[in-house]
Amino acid sequence: MNANLEQIKQEILAGAEELNSSKEVYEFKKKFLDGKTGKIGLLMKEMKNIPNEEKAAYGKGVNELKAWALEFLGGLDEKMKAKELQARYEAEKIDISLPAETTAEGNLHPITLVRNEIIDIFSGMGFEIYEGPEIETDYYNFTALNTPQDHPARDMQDTFYLSPEFLLRTQTSAGQIHVMEKKQPPIKILSPGKVFRSDDDATHSPMFTQMEGLVVDKGITLCDLQGMLDEFVRQIYGEGTKTRLRPSYFPFTEPSVEVDCSCFECGGKGCKLCKGTGWIEILGAGVVNNKVLENCGIDTSVYSGFAFGIGIERTAMLKYGINNIKMLFESDIKVLNQLNDK
Ligand code: DAH
């Protein structure tokens, strides 16, 4: 082969080693195979300087070199394109076997869940919601509720006084007075809210939540109270749960009762939750004391009523099996997540 042709072939072989992309192959190919300016194209122009007897062999050599270069560089181009496609696949690969990223979901706090559940049950029985103020006067929190000056609940030890007249309400019962002052019977309200007492141990917190209930109408008796509470415990603690009333004392009710429900954990046989008694205390209630109705200008010869007060934290503790009230206020996410799973 003509030395010149051989040199070009070697140049192509050596140059190909340096190529790294299909674009480089394209440029390199142009350098040799571009019709008129490519190095192989120019070889044909040399024909005129070749002696006649060598022309045929030279022409054949150039054509062979051209065919070889086309095949060689074409193959290289294909290989390079395949490599580039593979690299693109790798770069754009989506690994569908990876677990999805989880986003933390918010949940309602157990106190809110229990509060909503109680509201749901009673609104189903026609109760309306009234939310009273957290700062009360001595009159609404005590005097109007027939709680005399010397009652122990008024003690500085129990009540957070803001001034001789103002205090943080110790009970949602104060809401009863606001409602009865504004509205004549029939009255059927539920009053949820925070209350405050200077009390702090495993089952008491200086701030906790109560739900007050008040019904005033013609002919209301203790039987109406028990019938309604039976329905309440059935819905909140499950079918077959019953109530029991025990005599008690509250200044604003007469008679007053503590209400127990049959233990929803053991069905009344006796267990750790009910301390072997088969009953669990759930709320205080009673027939509204006439003095309270009179304080609000309600005619006791026509109307009577019943009231009850539920501790929401206590209800949540029973429902979720919590023995320390602090767990409900610490907002430890691990604890809250467990409570929400129930
Ligand atoms: N206010 C009472 C308390 O905080 C609970 C209570 C008892 C409310 C009897 C009532 C009731 O309405 O009739 O301990």
Q: What does the model show?
A:
This protein has eleven helices and nine strands. The protein has helices at 3-17, 22-33, 39-45, 52-91, 110-123, 138-141, 174-182, 222-237, 290-295, 312-320, 333-341; strands at 128-129, 135-137, 166-168, 187-196, 207-218, 243-250, 253-262, 279-288, 303-311. Strand 6 and strand 7 (253-262) form a beta hairpin. The chain folds into two domains: 2-92; 110-340, 2-Layer Sandwich (BirA Bifunctional Protein, domain 2), CATH 3.30.930.10. The model has no long low-confidence stretch (mean pLDDT 92). The protein is 41% helix and 20% strand. Bound molecules: 3,4-dihydroxyphenylalanine. 3,4-dihydroxyphenylalanine is lined by residues 171, 173, 212, 250, 253, 284-286, 307-309. Residues 171, 173, 212, 250, 253, 284-286, 307-309 line the site of 3,4-dihydroxyphenylalanine (DAH).
Summarize the structure.
The chain is an alpha+beta fold and 342 residues long. It contains 11 helices and 9 strands. The mean pLDDT is 92.
Could you state the order of secondary-structure elements as H and E?
HHHHHEEHEHEEHEEEHEHH
Number of domains: 2
**Which homologous superfamily in CATH is the superfamily of the largest domain?**
Bira Bifunctional Protein, Domain 2
What molecules are bound to this protein? 3,4-dihydroxyphenylalanine
Return the CATH class of the largest domain.
Alpha Beta
Spatially, the strands of the biggest sheet line up as 1-4-5-9-8-7-6
Task: Give the total of beta strands.
Answer: 9
| Discrete helix count | 11
Point out poorly predicted stretches: none
